[in-house]
Task: inverse folding
């Protein structure tokens, strides 16, 4: 017998009688304002939030806050001069020296400050992880209360890779001292577009 | 490791030699527990979430073979290659065969307690493979030729000055620099080079979804993603109990996991791997290694519901004061103490006794495993199976005999109380293990029985 058969047979023999799956309930969160809650949580986990009214405004903030950064890339469709557009088929290792990556996300989650991204909008899977700084654009209307709401939106969507990203990469492995920028971005900025 | 042949109590003695360190360890983990409490109290439905998660896992265990077959089918459709490993040895051989097929001798690995359980690193080292653990804490213990002492905080037993010294020796950082920010950055630069040059990356798995064939890996550092997205081959290793039925169930488990672990609302990254990147190979290794046996043990099968948050470690008064290495097993703490005897009763017979049975572990468990009840039940199994030392067995039997003979208990009690008052040196000495690091309480003048008889007659007089 192959290990597959051995394991499945052993599991079948050992498992208890069938137990029903529970129904998933929804819980009212009572957040006054989803955007405010999202921003509050994201800032406590080391992120930065800007409320903007247009894409131009995003780039004004980028110019100001990330002045001096050499390689700024984006997956947004229209970007001003000086910002490189990442296209399908880019070799992931060539992204190593990116200072700032500006990407879209599908939505944000108010209870934990996370944004949901999939590889069709990040173009390269490694992009939001390998950059020194990450900026993400979401729309104000696209903020949900909880992770349960988040999976309602994701539903049966097909993706090869998707990730919730909540704040800059971090570690507290050395004596529980929090350090931002473990292997991934040292900062995360979220632009909430009205 | 230096644990050979020593039991939990003896290994704790080694850890307890450095009292200020024990105090620091104790307080730091309690601080993590408090952060957990704060996060949990912000969620009014917390108890309902725990109950729901527990019920989902009950359902998983009752249909595990069905879900495994479904997961395999879906994952194959997604383009993943599935392997089945009956035990640790087969798991290690499968991983090695993939490396050999690609003629790769240098790999990166993100945190996976399963590969620790299977002792993959020493196995691969012997085969001439260079494995770099990329989680910062794991890299630290790896450079020190140790194993993690905590499943979420692998180097919680290390002080920053020692890490500074270790990095000075291995990474060339300036001698005497023990600044966490500086040391983390040095590790970042060192590991980035590894991520960029390794062709194969191994990761663990937090949850595998039967419905979609995808799996989720949670990290704060981003090391699993840096490894997997830059490598040509991604090998994900998982225990068969990591399956959950539907994608929507992630909405429950991801609300519970990080809050229970560190008090964060969610880990920085919750990465959902469904299909391999273009031109990449994705392997998933499904490992039994004793899990099907544990599933058949009615009293202990609930231990398979564990999502490895380590809340039970952080709250445990014994773990906090004895350190992870005293458990001489890959998964320490209360949960490890109910998992390990399943693998080898003789070798781990000491672990279910490394507990006060206070029940705090069961109270914080996000999937409601009855951890302290199982510790208690393991003790009974281990005594019956003859895996408990002669002294402990004689003590238990003696106590049982005495408690079954009230007359004897009365006499012994009276003698004992008299001795503690008048000749305390007879009990307060090194021969008595209870006296070690403890003072015996002041002996009461009468037993409860004597008090009761006296007060009852008084009441009758009224």
Result:
């Amino acid at each position: 017998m192959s290990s597959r058969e051995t394991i499945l047979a052993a599991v079948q023999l050992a498992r208890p009688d069938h137990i029903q799956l529970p129904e998933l309930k929804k819980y009212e969160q009572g957040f006054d304002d989803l955007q405010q809650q999202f921003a509050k949580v994201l800032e406590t986990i080391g992120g930065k939030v800007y409320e903007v009214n247009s894409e131009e405004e995003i780039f004004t903030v980028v110019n100001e806050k990330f002045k001096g950064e050499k390689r700024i890339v984006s997956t947004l469709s229209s970007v001003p001069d000086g910002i490189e557009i990442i296209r399908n088929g880019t070799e992931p290792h060539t992204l190593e020296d990116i200072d700032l990556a500006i990407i879209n996300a599908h939505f944000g989650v108010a209870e934990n400050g996370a944004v949901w991204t999939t590889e069709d909008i990040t173009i390269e899977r490694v992009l939001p992880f390998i950059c020194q700084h990450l900026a993400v654009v979401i729309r104000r209307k696209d903020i949900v209360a909880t992770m349960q709401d988040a999976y309602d939106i994701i539903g049966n969507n097909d993706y090869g890779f998707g990730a919730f990203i909540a704040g800059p990469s971090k570690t507290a492995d050395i004596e529980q001292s929090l350090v931002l920028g473990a292997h991934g971005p040292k900062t995360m900025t979220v632009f909430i577009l009205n | 490791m230096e644990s050979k042949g020593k039991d939990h109590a003896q290994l704790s003695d080694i850890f307890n030699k450095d009292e200020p360190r024990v105090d620091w360890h104790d307080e730091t983990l309690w601080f993590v527990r408090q952060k957990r409490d704060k996060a949990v109290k912000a969620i009014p439905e917390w108890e309902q979430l725990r109950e729901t998660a527990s019920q989902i896992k009950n359902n998983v265990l009752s249909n595990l073979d069905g879900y495994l077959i479904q997961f395999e089918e879906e994952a194959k459709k997604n383009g993943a290659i599935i392997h089945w490993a009956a035990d640790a040895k087969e798991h290690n051989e499968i991983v090695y065969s993939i490396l050999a097929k690609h003629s790769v001798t240098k790999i990166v690995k993100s945190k996976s307690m399963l590969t620790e359980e299977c002792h993959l690193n020493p196995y691969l080292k012997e085969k001439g493979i260079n494995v770099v653990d990329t989680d910062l804490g794991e890299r630290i213990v790896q450079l020190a030729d140790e194993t993690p002492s905590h499943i979420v905080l692998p180097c919680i037993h290390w002080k920053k000055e020692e890490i500074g010294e270790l990095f000075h020796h291995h990474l060339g950082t300036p001698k005497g620099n023990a600044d966490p920010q500086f040391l983390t950055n040095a590790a970042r630069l060192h590991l980035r080079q590894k991520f960029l040059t390794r062709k194969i990356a191994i990761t663990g798995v937090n949850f595998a979804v039967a419905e979609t064939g995808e799996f989720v890996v949670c990290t704060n550092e981003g090391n699993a993603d840096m490894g997997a997205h830059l490598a040509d081959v991604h090998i994900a290793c998982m225990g068969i109990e990591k399956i959950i039925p539907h994608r929507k169930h992630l909405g429950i488990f991801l609300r519970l996991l990080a809050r229970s672990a560190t008090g964060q609302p969610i880990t920085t990254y919750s990465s959902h791997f469904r299909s391999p990147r273009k031109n990449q190979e994705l392997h998933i290794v499904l490992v039994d290694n004793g899990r099907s046996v544990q599933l058949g043990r009615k009293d202990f099968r609930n231990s398979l519901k564990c999502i490895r948050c380590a809340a039970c470690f952080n709250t445990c008064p014994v773990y906090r004061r004895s350190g992870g290495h005293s458990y001489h097993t890959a998964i320490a703490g209360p949960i490890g103490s109910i998992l390990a005897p399943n693998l080898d009763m003789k070798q781990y017979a000491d672990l279910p006794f490394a507990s006060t049975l206070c029940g705090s572990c069961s109270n914080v468990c996000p999937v409601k495993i009855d951890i302290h009840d199982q510790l208690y039940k393991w003790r009974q199994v281990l005594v019956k199976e003859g895996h408990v030392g002669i002294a402990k067995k004689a003590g238990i039997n003696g106590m049982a005999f005495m408690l079954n003979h009230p007359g004897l208990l009365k006499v012994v009690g009276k003698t004992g109380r008299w001795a503690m008052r008048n000749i305390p040196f007879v009990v307060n000495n090194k021969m008595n293990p209870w006296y070690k690091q403890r003072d015996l309480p002041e002996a009461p003048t009468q037993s409860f029985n004597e008090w009761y008889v006296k007060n009852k007659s008084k009441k009758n007089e009224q």
Summary: The domain at 36-193 of chain A is CATH 3.40.50.10420 (Rossmann fold). Chain A has a mean pLDDT of 96. The longest helix of chain A spans residues 3-14. Chain A touches chain B through 72 residues (CB under 8 Å).
